[in-house]
Structure formats: C-alpha cells, structure tokens
Amino acid sequence: MLAQASPWYVHALQRTTAAPAGPLAVPERMEWTTRPGSGPNAEILGPDLRPKRVLELGCGPGHNAAHLATRYGAQVTAVDLVGLQIRRARSHYGRLNNLTFVVGHALHYLQASDERFDAVYSVFGAVGLVAPELLLPAIARHLTRGRTLAFSVPHPQRGGLHPTTDDRPRRDYVTLLDRTRLPIARWDFDAERWEKHLGHAGLWLSSAKEFHDARHGLWPTTLLITARKL
User: Fold this and answer.
1) What is the mean pLDDT of the chain?
2) Distance (Å, rounded) from C-alpha 96 to C-alpha 9?
3) How far is the CA of 197 from the CAs of 10, 123, 167, in angstroms?
4) What is the pLDDT of residue 5?
5) Is 127 in contact with 151 (CB distance < 8 Å)?
6) Which of 50, 116, 161, 205 has its CA 20 to 30 A from that of 76?
7) In the chain, what are the domains?
C-alpha cells in the first residue's frame, strides 16, 4: 500500500505502459546526472569492485545496477519501493549474474538487514527522499569502514531555486509522462548541509560536484556527493 500511494508508482505505471518491458543490452557506462555521458563512471565507488558487495537504494529500471554487475563484476543488490519498477528491472536484466532486485522501502530494507556493503549509492533515488537523519545512519551501519557512499540529487539551485535553510523537506514535484505534476517531499540541501548530516552519521564528505544540463537552462541540475565511512 505504501508504494501504490506514492507518486513513484504512478510514474512507473505510465513508463511501463509507454514502453513495455523486455531484455535490454547492459549500458556501457554508469550515469549519475541528468545529461547522459556527463558525469563520472563507477570509479567513484572504489578502485576495484570485483567481487565487492554493492547496494543501490532506488534502482528504478536497473540500468546502473546492471552495469556494475556486468562491467565491474560487483555483487549488486538493487532496492526500489515500487514493485512495477522491480518487475521492469528484472525483465531488462534478470538474466544477469551477480544482481539481485528487491522490492522495499530503502530505510525498511536497511533496518531489517544485517548485510555489510563495500559501496552504497543512490542516483536520484532514496537519498533526498527519505529523512536523512534516519537514512544516513542506517546506511553507515551497513557500510564497511573506509568505503564509499555516493549519491546524486537534484541540485538545490536548479531552475533558480535556493537551498533549504533548515533541516525540513520542502515541496517538490514528480513530472509524469503525461506532464501531470504530483507533489513529493524532498530534502533539498546544499553541500554544506549534506556534510553536516553525513558527519552526524559517521560519514566524511570527500567530494561535492555540481553538473549542468543545457537542456534545463543555466542553473546546475545535479549535485553529486561522495562520502566515506569513518
């Protein structure tokens, strides 16, 4: 019921209707930003991911998880709130080894699991959509010491916005294929505020990079954060 009450369920439903699922070729690179080919690849997760355990929080149709499992030989667990997305991901890449797709809320998955991971990442996924004071400590508990958390979020200055000035989420919108806009809550932090929350969780901010996408105007569109477990 939690997933079907979410705008992300409607988003997945429209995408599934518009483009029926089926096997896909594994992507040649990992994408972190709104402009394909513009960010780093998977090297920011660690120098050697074979056969490291990697967790994705909010995997959508599974493209990045498939890339890591195939091109890097990582043992990837990919979690998404919406069962429709997981069905899409399995239809695309369920044939691959080293890759497990799981339906579940990111925080609930972490709270119920005792697994340890060598890298955790989120690409416009759970980080920023789940209360960071809850999610980041939960991630840290499952991350091996010295290993990396990496996540990309919509830049807090996108479209001329200003970062939030406190720790509360603000109203944002999911734009569907039919151009309907559904409201969501998003923690729209700048790098300094992310650094504060990461530090409280026992994670050290190692880099914060912004990326632009000319299709969306002059403002930066993506903020990419990497941190390490202390």
Assistant:
1) 94
2) 25
3) 31, 18, 9
4) 59
5) yes
6) 205
7) 7-33+43-229 (3.40.50.150)
